[in-house]
Specification:
The chain is mainly α. It has one helix spanning 2-75.
């Protein structure tokens, strides 16, 4: 009877230890997921910033190019 009681007690203690490691593991998994999400958002933000800057500079260059064409056309006086 004592052996059976000791076996059951050991099983309950082992189950409790397993539950604690599982919950700690789940907690760490959630933290890791949060950190990964933060890193992904930062990378996306940097990519958007880079692309936006590139587009704005390209647009400014094309505008300047168009303005130069118009200026060249207006400088020539038809006779």
């Amino acid at each position: 009877m004592k052996t059976l009681f000791a076996l059951i007690l050991t099983m309950f203690l082992a189950a409790g230890a397993w539950a604690q490691t599982t919950s700690t593991s789940s907690k760490q998994d959630m933290k890791d997921a949060g950190h990964d999400t933060k890193a992904a958002a930062k990378h996306t933000g940097h990519a958007v910033k880079h692309t936006t800057k590139k587009v704005v500079h390209k647009g400014a260059h094309e505008t300047k190019k168009g303005a130069n064409k118009v200026e060249n056309k207006t400088d020539q006086h038809p006779q």
